[in-house]
Design goal:
By secondary structure, the chain is mostly helical. The chain has a domain of 45 residues. It is 32% helix and 0% strand. It is flat. The N and C termini lie far apart (35 Å).
Length: 88
């Protein structure tokens, strides 16, 4: 299992070194910034902290760092699929 290469409480704006999916990192980080704790144990969105979106942001940043990048040479890497996993 790989170690997280950033502070989950205060993640950097830019993806950490070795991040497999920088775009996912940036989107998740933007969500993280929008959902911060306030003094009354509530999120900036008004829900109790951590709200579901704060959790989603944390999961997104972690996933961006630990997932394997797609191999563009793979014949199935970018082929669209239906819910049944059959090609379109």
């Amino acid at each position: 299992m790989s170690r997280v290469q950033y502070d989950p409480e205060n993640p950097p704006e830019q993806p950490p070194e070795g991040c497999a999916d920088p775009l996912l990192w940036r989107v998740a980080h933007a969500l993280h910034l929008e959902h911060q704790p306030e003094q009354d144990s509530r999120c900036t969105c008004g829900e109790m902290f951590p709200c579901s979106r704060a959790g989603l942001a944390a999961r997104g940043m972690l996933t961006a760092c630990v997932r394997r990048p797609l191999d563009p040479a793979s014949p199935t890497a970018l082929r669209p699929r239906r819910w049944s996993h059959r090609g379109i």
